[in-house]
Amino acid sequence: MTQKILIVGGGIIGASFALHLAEAGADVRLLDAQRSVGGIATPASWAWINASWGNPPDYFRLRHESMRQWREIDRRVPGLAVNWCGGLLWDMAEADLLSYASERNAQGYEVRVLDGKAALKIEPALAVAPPVAVHVPGEASVEPVHAVERLLSAARERGAEVLHGTGVRWLIEKKGRIVGVMTDEGDLDADVVVLAAGADSPRLLKDVGQDLALDQPPGLLVHSAPVGEMLNGLVMAPELHVRQTSEGRLVAGSDFAGADPGDNPQAAAEALFAKVKAFLKGGEALALEQFTVGYRPTPPDGVSAIGHVPGLEGLYLCVTHSGITLAPALGALGAAEILGQGRNPLLSPFSPNRLLSKT
Ligand SMILES: Cc1cc2nc3c(=O)[nH]c(=O)nc-3n(C[C@H](O)[C@H](O)[C@H](O)COP(=O)(O)OP(=O)(O)OC[C@H]3O[C@@H](n4cnc5c(N)ncnc54)[C@H](O)[C@@H]3O)c2cc1C
Cα–Cα 20 to 30 A to 192, which of 23, 66, 169, 244? Predict the structure, then answer.
């Protein structure tokens, strides 16, 4: 029998679930409270697709698999245009760079060690060459709102219904089972509700007796006015991560996740933008167009939470940081689990149980 599935949230995570569930033949309806397309954390993202340093082995494997799945989605979703530009990185000590390179190469994640001259060949616009850097040719970026639009459009073509401006007030519970949602316009029933509501997930869970531990650290990014091509790929330097969008804007943070802008975000943005100008040849001509402060829905242990919510049949939760990187794998593996194909071992360490407690 066709499963009737409601997805709450139309950021990059909800969009990926919608696509994968619709592709598998489910009856899918996605609801998002906002009238605009793209999500809340998603548009404020630096949008680096990677399985870079500092990730525990299980999390590395999930991220690496998601990069593989981005390539597949890129082939089957018209116009998605993932930018497989590679990343140049030197935001750590030389010894750490070398051990990162050898560890990742042994895991099948290609990392090339370069001297300053070779780094400048990849990014000739750098004002100062790094002493040593690594280049990761398989890393990528997307324009996050565009990616959500394309994923949702592909989901629609496969039969999903996508409703913006439809907020979910609460989850409807009957005898320990979630049977639907109450929206601004009335109730809707479902066999399974997928909660992909980012920062609003704890509020919806609290109403049905579950406390979800979730942090929401702020992250400041600056965006230049569009300019001609300056960068060829992602650049991760000490205290400055910068990339150029498909429209020619430079987007930068003190790192990809951005720092807390403190109580004067305008001043913090101007100080950060001054670093961008000094970092690039010709940078003095750059103009600050806008800054954004995004709030990352982040489990306190820094890794994803995905799976059925214990004690509440019919409710499936997905909340994560690095959602741009992880959306394809979480959507694909989550859809398979929801549709009864079992839990992929890649997801085993990421059960939401560890973050949930009964209120
Ligand atoms: C500054 C910054 C930099 C980042 N850099 C990177 C990076 O380089 N690489 C990377 O992989 N990740 C990065 N991230 C993280 C990534 O952007 C997030 O993990 C991802 O966007 C989360 O997507 P989401 O769909 O869960 O959440 P969101 O985009 O917030 O979407 C949630 C959606 O749910 C909807 N919603 C909420 N409540 C309800 C309700 N009650 N009813 C209906 N709809 C509801 C909202 O309207 C929203 O559209 C960054 C994030 C930030 C802020």
Answer: 66
Question: b/e per residue, 105-128, with b = 16+ CB within 10 A?
Answer: eeeebebebbeeeebbebbebbee
Closest CA to ligand 1's atom 25: 11
Using a 6 Å cutoff on CB, does residue 321 contact ligand 1? yes
Judge if the beta carbon of residue 196 lies within 6 A of ligand 1: yes
SS3 126: strand
Both structure tokens of 344: 């992929």
* Contact predicate 344/306, CB 8 Å: no
Q: Which two tokens stand for residue 113?
A: 């060690």
Q: Kindly give the number of the ligand 1 atom that is closest to the alpha carbon of 218.
A: 53
Q: Atom of ligand 1 at shortest distance to CA of 197?
A: 34
Rg for the chain, CA atoms, rounded? 21
Q: Which domain holds residue 348?
A: 4-47+145-213+300-358
On whether both 128 and 160 belong to a single domain, the answer is no
Domain count of the fold of the chain: 2
Q: What is the pLDDT of residues 101-115, one digit of tens each?
A: 999 999 999 999 999
Q: Which of 294, 344, 343 is nearest to 323 (CA)?
A: 294
Condensed to tens digits (0 to 9), the pLDDT of residues 50-80 reads 999 989 999 999 999 999 999 999 999 999 9
Shared domain check, 164 and 122: no
Regarding pTM above 0.90, the answer is: yes
Asked whether residue 69 is assigned to any structural domain, the reply reads no
pLDDT tens for 232-250 read 999 999 999 999 999 999 9
- Give the residue, out of 13, 42, 254, with the most ligand 1 atoms within 8 A of its beta carbon, to mutate for a pocket test: 42
Residue 233 shares a structural domain with residue 276? yes
194 lines ligand 1 (CB under 6 A): no
Pocket test residue of 29, 62, 295, 296 for ligand 1, highest count of atoms within 8 A of CB: 296
